[in-house]
Specification:
The protein is globular. About 75% of the residues lie in helices and about 0% in strands. The chain folds into two domains: about 60 residues, no CATH class; about 210 residues, MetI-like fold. It is mainly alpha-helical and about 290 residues long.
Length: about 290
């Protein structure tokens, strides 16, 4: 009995240590967000000198930074928000639709060519973006993929690796007998996928969708390389150009726009975070 008590006490101490470490990690991760929130409501001078100070009557700027950020320069912030929203929604839709179809085909056909395509998709996940970014920029210009209406095709190529990897893992866990029963009932491949397989992919669809939305919405490098930034700007690009004369930056307005940009993603993530765990676990059942 004493040995059992010692074992339980040891496990309890281990859990306490792990909990403390995780709490410290959480604080470290949350600290930049807290700094953005604090400085979004401070005058520019105090952002530079008292970055982590709490609000007071002297440094509190109210909504001035938000008004300055939205009205700054000759480019419409809401137009940039529209471009970001359009690119994010369309890119995520294309990734979910085409990658789920490709993953189902790769899994069920299981030929040597499908395996090659699958491993090429996996390989694309480990290739640094910096290795292909200049070639990509030139290719996008040649193929006229340098507008907000066509850049989702580029995102489809870059997002296919992770999406197909997760979808293939889940499709392998679906009994093939379900699809055979649908085929006996008269469903062709298209109807089988959209009416039988796709509804079963719901958790993985939501999980992949959340990850892709967070990536595309916050992405800066790909749009700045592909788009004509004088004509088309996403929110990250617009924030980068919040500069006055001689390169001075209004940090208060910058923080305000960053806060406006991250709030939708944070709210969306908090509302759907349980599906990320469910989708990843479902995709890890087999394969």
């Amino acid at each position: 009995m004493p040995e059992r008590i010692k074992t339980l006490a040891s496990k309890h101490r281990g859990l306490v240590v792990v909990s403390v470490i995780m709490a410290i990690v959480c604080v470290i991760w949350v600290l930049p967000v807290a700094a953005v929130i604090l400085n979004a409501f401070k005058w520019n001078t105090f952002v530079k000198t008292d970055t982590f100070a709490l609000w007071n009557a002297e440094n509190f700027a109210g909504w001035s930074n938000f008004i300055t950020g939205v009205t700054f320069g000759n480019y419409n912030f809401w137009l940039a928000a529209w471009y970001s929203t359009f690119i994010t929604i369309v890119s995520t839709f294309l990734i979910l639709l085409f990658c789920s179809m490709a993953a189902w085909y790769i899994t069920r056909v299981d030929s040597i060519w499908c395996k090659i395509i699958y491993y090429l998709c996996i390989f694309s996940m480990v290739v640094p973006f910096q290795m292909v970014m200049f070639t990509l920029s030139s290719t996008a210009d040649q193929l006229k993929l340098n507008t907000p209406w066509t850049i989702p095709i580029v995102y489809l190529g870059f997002g296919a690796g992770l999406a197909i990897f997760m979808f293939v893992g889940f499709v392998k866990s679906i009994p093939v007998e379900i699809e055979e029963a649908a085929s006996i009932d008269g469903c062709g491949p298209v109807r089988t996928f959209f009416f039988v397989v796709l509804p079963m992919l719901r958790s993985t669809l939501i999980s992949v969708g959340i990850l892709e939305i967070m990536w595309v919405w916050n992405d800066y490098l790909l749009p700045v390389l592909v788009l004509d930034i004088n004509q088309y700007r996403t929110i990250p690009i617009h924030i980068q150009y919040l500069k006055g004369s001689y390169g001075t930056v209004d940090l208060g307005a910058t923080m305000a726009l960053i806060l406006m940009a991250i709030i939708p993603v944070i709210v969306f993530y908090l509302a759907c975070q349980k599906y990320i765990i469910a989708g990843v676990a479902a995709g890890a059942v087999k394969g």
